[in-house]
Amino acid sequence: MGTPLLKEILQNWQKYEPDEDIYVPSGIDVTLDTIVTILPFDRHRPRMFEGLEYVLSFEQVGDAIVGLEAQLRRETSAEERLAAVLHYARHDAFIDPQHLPVGGLRE
Predict the structure, then answer these.
(1) Which intervals hold domain DUF7716 (predicted)?
(2) Of 27, 93, 96, 100, whose CB is crowded by the most CB atoms within 10 A?
């Protein structure tokens, strides 16, 4: 369990266990500077938990980032990783690289 910034875990997602879950404070706009809570997988924990909202597991974060980098054929920026992860969390689908933010995040 820990509380790093989202930009830190997107940069170093490989260092976490694939089945650990990422939660953010509910009701906020998620940014790279959002403080997240990392919890071990628990099938009985609800998606909304003690003021926190489930985002994804690290396995899914990795899938979203690796998928985007394969499409772009290059390493992605923190902003691109954030867009890919949030898109995956909201739509259960990989982001189309044409929908990546230019000069800021958009959904």
Answers:
(1) 6-96
(2) 100
The boundaries of the domain holding residue 54 are 6-99
Task: Supply 26's token pair.
Answer: 């509910």
Q: How many domains does the chain have?
A: 1
Residue 104 lies in a domain: no
Q: What is the pLDDT of residues 2-53, one digit of tens each?
A: 679 999 999 999 999 999 999 999 999 999 999 999 999 999 999 999 999 9
E-strand spans in the chain? Answer: 21-25, 37-39, 48-49, 52-57
Whether 1 is in a domain gets the answer no
Q: Is residue 105 part of a domain?
A: no
Residue holding tokens 């990392």?
38
> What's the one-letter identity of residue 67?
G
Q: How far apart are CA 68 and CA 73, in angstroms?
A: 8
